[in-house]
Design goal:
With 361 residues, this protein is α/β, with parallel strands linked by helices. The chain has 17 helices and 11 strands. The strands form 4 sheets. The chain has a 5-stranded parallel β-sheet. A two-stranded antiparallel ribbon has the order 1-2. Strands 5-6 form a two-stranded antiparallel ribbon.
């Protein structure tokens, strides 16, 4: 049955797989975890548990996944760093879902995130009428994770102000949070940890202090190194999105996906795939996640205003929106790419070239 919600958390979406891994567990399970590290690895990278097929959630370097899981077995927090669209949040969510069965203790880091959102705040109406009490306390996701021995997720930590980031130092060091208003300290239960993510494009916005970095084990998630892996990631996620949003359109063909990934990789790297021609790079982030959104949007256009099959016009419109974020810079780079690369690739690209040129005229 289709869900009435736009997006279910990972533990709900993959409930059967998680349950199968728990039921078929044969290895030692760490305190506070619901399955062993090996089972978490199987959940993330794919495999089989009994008669249940476990779909891969992350396609990439398996060793990086093992390092992430091993980090969370210890008392170290985990920091995932990478370019936009390298599945940092996706991996963070699925690690939490597999380990605790709860990926919803999330703080979204922004310029407006406060220290209270990291620790705790108060219901001021109750505070004024009754004074400080446990009932008047509003617990943060980190506080609740410490209380229950689970994982809290902090997205885009480098978007938070430095003083807000540093509120984590004592928590990650002492594994306790002090509540002086109530005269007690909350010790973290076994299983508590923090998974933070940071975007390399935001480096320098609010640089993390050396003291805070030392509290994390840092794992850098790379852009997919080869075309085959990136195509498989895009194909898998587009299929999932199409099902979630009931997009009644044909899935993009393998060749169409390859064309999009080729365009993205060339503009991203500033040269053609064969390395024979240098290209102007665009200012936008042409990530794997952006390619997934582009193709899902193309399917929506085809389903809503076409015959259900992605046309060159649908794809050209989506490419235009994804690539040209700044007309003065991206527009020039895109026009040069059309004339110097796409136009010369012959009949396979000619239809798409013409529609892209129309949109740029």
């Amino acid at each position: 049955m289709a869900s009435e919600f736009q997006r279910l958390p990972a533990e709900e979406l993959y409930k059967k797989e998680i349950q199968a891994l728990i039921e078929n567990e044969t290895n030692s399970v760490p305190s506070g975890w619901q399955m062993s590290p090996k089972s978490v690895f199987t959940y993330i990278t794919g495999g089989k548990s009994g008669n249940t097929v476990i779909t891969p959630k992350y396609l990439g370097n398996d060793r990086l996944v093992e390092i992430c899981i091993a980090t969370l077995v210890t008392d170290r927090a985990l920091l995932l760093i990478g370019d936009p669209g390298t599945a940092k949040s996706w991996l963070s969510e699925h690690l939490s879902a597999a380990i605790n069965g709860d990926s919803t203790k999330v703080i979204q880091g922004t310029a407006g995130t406060t220290e209270e959102q990291i620790k705790y705040s108060w219901n001021y109406a109750m505070l004024i009428s009754k004074g400080p009490s446990p009932d008047a306390m509003i617990k943060s996701p980190v506080y609740r994770a410490m209380e229950t021995g689970t994982i809290a997720r902090l997205e885009e930590i480098s978007r938070c102000a430095s003083e807000v980031q540093d509120a984590l130092i004592s928590i990650l060091s002492e594994k306790r949070v002090s509540v002086p208003e109530l005269g007690f300290e909350l010790p973290a239960k076994k299983g508590f940890s923090v998974i933070a993510t940071a975007n390399t494009r935001d480096k320098g916005v609010n640089e993390m202090s050396a003291a805070l970095k030392r509290r994390f084990n840092i794992v850098v998630l790379p852009v997919p190194s080869d075309m085959k892996t990136e195509i498989e990631i895009v194909r898998t996620r587009v299929l999932q999105l199409a099902g979630s949003f009931d997009i009644n359109a044909q899935m993009p063909s393998e060749s169409l996906i390859e064309d999009v990934i080729t365009i993205f990789r060339e503009l991203r790297n500033g040269k053609t795939l064969d390395g024979t021609q240098k290209l102007k790079q665009t200012g936008g982030v042409l990530s794997t996640a952006e390619a997934i959104s582009l193709l899902a949007n193309s399917m929506a256009l085809a389903a809503s205003f076409g015959n259900g099959k992605i046309s060159d016009y649908d794809l050209a419109s989506a490419l235009q929106g994804a690539i040209v974020k700044d007309e003065s810079k991206d527009g020039i780079a895109w026009k040069e790419y059309l004339e110097n690369v796409m136009k010369k690739r012959g009949s396979d690209y000619m239809g798409l070239y013409k529609k892209c040129k129309e949109l740029n005229s």
